[in-house]
């Protein structure tokens, strides 16, 4: 009997062990998969054959993203991974191994949505592997996110990863076999509808989060149905505020996303200080908390047209490529009433243009079928002609042959000048090859640019085809180059540009492999032709000490390590720039406006960003507002196209222009009160980036002080 019990226990152990192995079997191991877009992070594996994510090997890299066992994506809106399990199986768990390191601006993904299909014709939604609260924090960590208890059949598994920030890394995806199908019946989704389904999931997540923040609770919990969630949310705010319509005064630079949470501030007064020929901004949000559609009418009453002019805009939401958020960005001139459905919010922005010195009070009347209120705009216009001086340079690589603006170049030029751009980059396509004597394209291009202060000629030495058969820096090449340069000068002078306004731009964000070549060129120029001006962008510290002292202008990336290095090195003029994608989602305040404050603080002479009109999408790159979708584009632009002439500005474009004005005011204040006091003001703004009212507060102090010191 005793022996029988021993045998029975052994059999039970073997059974449990076998059962565990079956349940823990990774059925994705060595299975083929496809990825869109392809991994593009340079320090991780290229994964050309699509094998790394299912090879069963975890990365030992530290950090995780510097490894040949890790794949990585940079500046990608969505990542789609399709795995073929080769046979229909019951799926239990799906695991995605990733890492974060917030000091390197690397975060866990925002979402990992999983779908499955047995035939690629119909998909079922399995769930989100990132649904817990551990997707936060700041420490370096490698973590396996697991979607448990899927309990559904599939041969084809589709993962859609939504980045949180600019990077996503993964070294292994595991799919564990199950033994039991669940009782639930998931939604059936056609392949073409999967992306739309993901958008709905993201909206549900955001509205549910808003309900939770508002301490809303039902006995049955919060619904998973978007329509019901919106109804519950509306009811929550109706109970809280007991109002049909709420008007909130907000900063014009706040990063406004959906769903907007009304605050019912009851502050309807604006106190603005505006320089003559300068602009001030204000904004408000109207939220409909009634159960009926409401029509919002806005009327400006401004009797002091000789002192200032007010213009009102609506700011619609657009779909951003960053976490597929809806963000309020484009500025549409208000000319017809706005219709709001129950629960909907709309942002309005107004500009005040200073015309002549004086104090004024204007009102903006806001009304609907059952509501009326007035906003009061008190404005002091200060006069000082010094504000018009070019104390700061600005560039944003506005190539006039860009598809977004190529048929509206005159409107683009006027828009650039209006917003403070005084420097233009001439693209390689508008320049003759070195050794060529045909300058017609160049002359045609610069004939439109007579109002600009500087021209940067992007000759692009990276492209050796530009040398027209000669060897770089050979005696023959040098002779051809100087002949070419003299031809450039002659053509430039035909259109009013002197040699001092022309800058050669041989390399953009120079890489380590080109540093020696660039140094040779710059040393030769400086030694033999010191009147030739040069320019380059610098995004890494390894080229600063060798290259920057030889440049007439070095424009450095907005990065602490690069700025620290440049401040400790010999240099001539230094400008600052930034290049982040998903531009529609970037902060108008911290990214676009404060770059000029940083330039002032660090004694820089110019600012810039990539790009005025760069939008990459599968069609015509026109960035039409009515069809804009940041998820399927890589957008850097600050403008949109509408159905009419000209362009639609964004809040970001206005914030950048305001920053240029801020810089000029800081310069004037430094002349009157001392550079030390002015820098303390700039430092207080830079060190408090989350306080989006700080720059306006300091600006008003400066204007008030200058009017007294005048």
Shape annotation: globular
CATH-defined fold name of the largest domain:
TIM Barrel
The N- to C-terminal Cα distance equals 108 Å
* Total DSSP E strands: 34
How would you characterize this protein structure?
Strands 1, 3, 4, 5, 6, 7, 9 and 10 form an eight-stranded antiparallel sheet that branches. An eight-stranded parallel sheet has the order 23-30-29-28-27-26-25-24, covered by helices on one side. Strands 11-13-20-15-18 form a five-stranded antiparallel sheet, with helices on one face. About 2% of the residues have low confidence. The longest helix is centred in the C-terminal third of the chain and has 23 residues. Helix 6 links the parallel strand 25 and strand 26. The chain has three domains: 166 residues, Jelly Rolls (Sandwich), CATH 2.60.120; 141 residues, Immunoglobulin-like (Sandwich); 238 residues, TIM Barrel (Alpha-Beta Barrel), CATH 3.20.20. The relative contact order is 0.08. It has 710 residues and is of the alpha+beta class. The chain starts with a helix and ends with a helix. The chain has 13 helices and 34 strands.
Which key phrases capture this entry?
Immunoglobulin-like; Jelly Rolls; TIM Barrel; 8-stranded parallel β-sheet; 26% helix; globular; 710 residues; 8-stranded antiparallel β-sheet
Short description:
Helices cover 26% and strands 28% of the residues. It has 13 helices and 34 strands.
Topology, pairings included?
Layout: H1 2-23, E1 33-36, E2 71-74, E3 79-100, E4 111-117, E5 123-128, E6 141-147, E7 152-162, E8 167-170, E9 172-177, E10 188-189, H2 194-213, H3 226-241, E11 245-250, E12 269-275, E13 279-288, E14 294-301, E15 308-315, E16 317-319, E17 326-328, E18 332-333, E19 338-340, E20 345-354, E21 358-368, E22 371-382, E23 393-395, H4 409-418, E24 423-426, H5 440-446, E25 454-458, H6 475-494, E26 502-505, H7 515-528, E27 533-538, H8 544-547, E28 553-557, H9 560-567, E29 573-578, H10 588-601, E30 606-609, E31 615-616, E32 634-635, E33 639-640, E34 648-649, H11 651-673, H12 675-686, H13 694-709
Parallel strand pairs: 12-22, 23-30, 24-25, 25-26, 26-27, 27-28, 28-29, 29-30
Antiparallel strand pairs: 1-3, 2-8, 3-6, 3-7, 3-9, 4-5, 4-7, 5-10, 11-13, 13-20, 14-19, 14-21, 15-18, 15-20, 16-17, 21-22, 31-32, 33-34
Helix pairs in contact: 2-3, 10-11, 10-12, 11-12, 11-13
């Amino acid at each position: 009997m005793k022996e029988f019990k021993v045998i029975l226990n052994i059999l039970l152990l073997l059974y449990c062990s076998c059962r565990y192995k079956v349940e823990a079997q990774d059925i994705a191991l060595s299975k083929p998969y496809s990825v869109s877009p392809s991994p593009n992070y340079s320090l991780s594996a290229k994964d050309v054959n699509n094998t790394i994510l299912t090879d069963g090997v975890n990365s030992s890299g530290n950090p995780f993203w510097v490894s040949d066992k890790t794949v990585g994506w940079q500046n990608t809106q969505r990542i789609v991974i399709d795995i073929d399990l080769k046979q229909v199986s019951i799926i239990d768990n799906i695991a995605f191994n990733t890492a974060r390191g917030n000091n390197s601006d690397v975060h866990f993904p925002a979402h990992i949505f999983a779908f499955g299909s047995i035939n690629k014709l119909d998909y079922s939604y399995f769930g989100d592997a990132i649904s817990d609260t551990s997707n936060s924090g700041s420490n370096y960590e490698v973590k396996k996110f697991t979607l448990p208890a899927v309990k559904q059949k599939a041969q084809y598994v589709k993962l859609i990863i939504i980045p949180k920030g600019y990077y996503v890394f993964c070294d292994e995806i595991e799919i564990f076999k199950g033994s039991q199908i669940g009782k639930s019946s998931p939604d059936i989704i056609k392949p073409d509808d999967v992306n739309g389904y993901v958008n709905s999931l993201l909206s549900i997540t955001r509205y549910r989060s808003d309900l939770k923040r508002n301490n809303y609770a039902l006995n049955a919990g919060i619904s998973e149905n978007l329509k019901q969630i919106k109804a519950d949310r509306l009811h929550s705010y109706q109970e809280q505020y007991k109002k049909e319509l709420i008007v909130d005064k907000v900063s014009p630079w706040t990063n406004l996303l959906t769903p907007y949470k009304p605050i019912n501030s009851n502050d309807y007064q604006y106190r603005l200080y505006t320089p003559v020929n300068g602009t001030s901004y204000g904004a408000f949000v109207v939220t409909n908390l009634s159960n009926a559609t409401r029509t919002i009418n806005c009327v400006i009453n401004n009797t002091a047209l000789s002192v200032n002019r007010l213009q009102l805009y609506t700011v619609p939401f657009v779909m951003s490529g960053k976490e597929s958020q809806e963000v309020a960005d484009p500025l549409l001139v208000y000319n017809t009433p706005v219709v709001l459905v129950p629960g909907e919010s709309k942002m309005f922005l107004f500009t005040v243009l200073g015309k002549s010195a004086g104090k004024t009070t204007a009102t903006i009347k806001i009304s609907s079928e059952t509501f009326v209120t007035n906003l009061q705009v008190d404005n002091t216009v200060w006069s000082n002609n010094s504000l018009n001086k070019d104390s700061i340079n600005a560039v944003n690589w506005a190539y006039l042959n860009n598809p977004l603006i190529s048929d509206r170049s005159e409107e683009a030029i006027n828009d650039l000048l209006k917003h403070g751009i005084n420097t233009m980059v001439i693209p390689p396509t508008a320049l003759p090859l070195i050794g060529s004597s045909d300058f017609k394209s160049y002359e045609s291009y610069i004939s439109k640019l007579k109002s600009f202060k500087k021209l940067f000629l992007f000759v692009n030495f990276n492209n050796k085809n530009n040398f027209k058969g000669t060897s770089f820096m050979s005696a023959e090449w040098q002779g051809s180059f100087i002949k070419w340069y003299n031809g450039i000068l002659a053509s430039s002078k035909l259109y009013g540009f002197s040699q001092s306004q022309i800058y050669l731009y041989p390399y953009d964000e120079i890489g380590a492999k080109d540093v020696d070549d660039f140094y040779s060129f710059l040393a030769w120029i400086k030694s033999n032709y010191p009147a030739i001006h040069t320019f380059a962008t610098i995004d890494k510290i390894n080229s600063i000490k060798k290259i920057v002292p030889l440049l007439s202008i070095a424009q450095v990336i907005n990065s602490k390590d690069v700025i620290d290095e440049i401040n400790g090195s010999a240099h001539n003029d230094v400008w600052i720039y930034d290049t982040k994608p998903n531009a529609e989602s970037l902060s108008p305040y911290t990214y676009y406006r404060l770059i000029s404050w940083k330039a002032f603080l660090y004694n820089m002479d110019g600012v810039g960003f990539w790009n005025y009109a760069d939008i990459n999408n599968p069609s015509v790159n026109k960035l039409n507002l009515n069809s804009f979708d940041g998820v399927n584009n890589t957008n850097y632009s600050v403008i949109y196209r509408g159905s009419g002439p000209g362009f639609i500005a964004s809040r970001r474009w206005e914030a950048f222009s305001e920053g240029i004005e801020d810089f000029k005011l800081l310069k004037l204040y430094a002349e009157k009160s001392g550079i030390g006091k002015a820098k303390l003001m700039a430092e207080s703004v830079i060190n408090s980036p989350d306080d989006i009212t700080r720059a306006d507060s300091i600006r008003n102090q400066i204007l008030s002080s200058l009017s007294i010191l005048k």
